[in-house]
Automatic annotation (TrEMBL):
One of its GO terms (molecular function) is actin filament binding. Keywords: Repeat. InterPro entries: ADF-H/Gelsolin-like_dom_sf (IPR029006), Gelsolin-like_dom (IPR007123), Villin/Gelsolin (IPR007122). It comes from Punica granatum (Pomegranate). The keyword Repeat applies. Pfam families: Gelsolin. This is Gelsolin-like domain-containing protein. GO terms for biological process: actin filament severing. Residues 10-79 form the Gelsolin-like domain. It comes from the Eukaryota.
Amino acid sequence: IVDGDLKLVEGELSKSLLENNRCYLLDCGDEIFVWVGRLTQVDERKAASLSAEEYITSQSRPKSTRITKVIQGYETHAFKSNFGSWPLGSVNSGAEEGRGKVAALLKQQGVGLKALAKAAPVIEEVPPLLEGGGKMEVWRINGSAKTPLPNEEIGKFYSGDCYITLYTYHAGDRKEDYFLGCWIGKDSLE
């Protein structure tokens, strides 16, 4: 995104394409990511968000299309999974410095997040699904009601329905941990 305009980036999708003084838009169909480099200016960040909204409108996408803002150094697994090559490793060496800059930037924009500068980055960990004898519960959503699925139906999702899943498992020294998710069928009604 350059001055609020979208410029197509050619080549294989890899982390090396992302410059820390720019913002990028990644179209993944049902979700749009706006990646924000640590060294971008406030006006560029605002323009990037507006560009994403304008892009959705110009492409005649549904208003339910999700826009996810991703800040450099805090990329989620969902974002990184779209790249052919993303270096392994937890947090980059500039993460602490980056957190402080992000906190200052958000404060400058009027967002009051006191703990952000001290908080550790979000690390998405997928639980060891179905490995530790955890308990899986699934509900089909019908309007505002939820109906539990019988065990023999778990794993059969239909495109006209929406589901909530809850996986309860034991992780390390904790008693119980949870993995909550939702599945929205492409033909389901709003």
